[in-house]
Design a protein that fits this description.
The protein has 236 residues and is mainly alpha-helical. The protein is built from eight helices and two strands; from the N terminus they run αααααββααα.
Length: 236
């Protein structure tokens, strides 16, 4: 990570660790309890849509447009709303987004098990898209918070470079990606265990993690970063 302390709270590694853990929990929750799908990203859905088109299953292909569209809509919203939020000058967009995620996940926990899986799927598609587009760099390192493919790649690349060049800075950076992978797996483990005992209310595990992040960001907005609400995080 970059040296120095000139980072917004929303760029801190500890924030990204908790968001990664909630991302792992989302993945386990939707796969085990809400239709055997992963809603954190859309690569799988796009592949499935292509397969459906190849098989002439037009209805299935059209159905898969729902989560893909929800994901795209979430990204668009997360590009438009921060402008209005910044003008208001009360809280940062990052903080408000986490507050919105808390509300969504809290309400999802009240859905009966008989409710259509698509409700949870689309809701999680939407918030994961906004989170992915909002939280982009952890203390100077580009990172995603809702899936981990690039973390696996970056971990391998930096460990290899560190060994080849005998430069510990590459190892250190690689380990930051390794830490995110660990948190993602920990979230998936927590989601699996909670789902076994609490079924749909397991999503409240993510609510709890997001609440910790929200309190941290809100405190920063109201205190040490009160005069920096218009500052744009790195990567935007």
């Amino acid at each position: 990570m970059e040296s120095g302390q000139d980072f917004l709270e929303c760029e801190r590694g500890r924030v990204f660790c908790l968001l990664m853990m909630s991302g792992g929990l989302f993945g386990a929750f939707t796969y085990l309890l809400r239709g055997n799908v992963f809603c954190n990203a859309q690569t799988g859905n796009i592949v499935l849509m292509g397969m459906a088109l190849g098989e002439g299953n037009w209805r299935q292909a059209a159905y898969l447009l729902i989560p893909i569209t929800a994901y795209g809509f979430g990204a668009a919203i997360s590009e438009i709303l921060p402008i209005s939020v910044k003008k208001a000058g009360l809280l940062r967009w990052d903080t408000l987004l986490i507050g919105f995620e808390i509300l969504v996940t809290f309400l999802l926990g009240f859905l009966p098990e008989s409710a259509p899986c698509q409700i949870s799927q689309v809701a999680i598609n939407f918030i994961c898209s906004m989170q992915y587009n909002t939280f982009r760099q952890a203390e100077g390192i580009p990172m995603a918070t809702t899936f981990c493919t690039n973390h696996v790649r970056q971990f391998g690349i930096h460990i290899a470079k560190g060994i080849r060049k005998k430069d510990v800075s590459y190892i250190t950076r690689g380990m930051q990606h390794g830490k995110m992978l660990f948190m993602f797996v920990a979230g998936a483990v927590a989601g699996t265990v909670l789902g076994k005992y609490f079924l749909g209310k397991a999503i409240w595990g993510a609510t709890f993690l997001l609440l910790i992040v929200f309190i941290d960001l809100l405190h920063a907005d109201l205190t040490k970063e009160k005069g920096m609400l218009e500052r744009i995080p790195r990567g935007h």
